[in-house]
Amino acid sequence: KQSNARSTITYARADRNTRTTQVFINLRDNKQLDTQGFSPFGRVVSGMEVVDKITSQYDDQPDQGLIQLQGNAYLNDKFPKLDYIETAAIVQP
Question: What is the pTM for the complete model shown?
Answer without folding.
Answer: 0.71
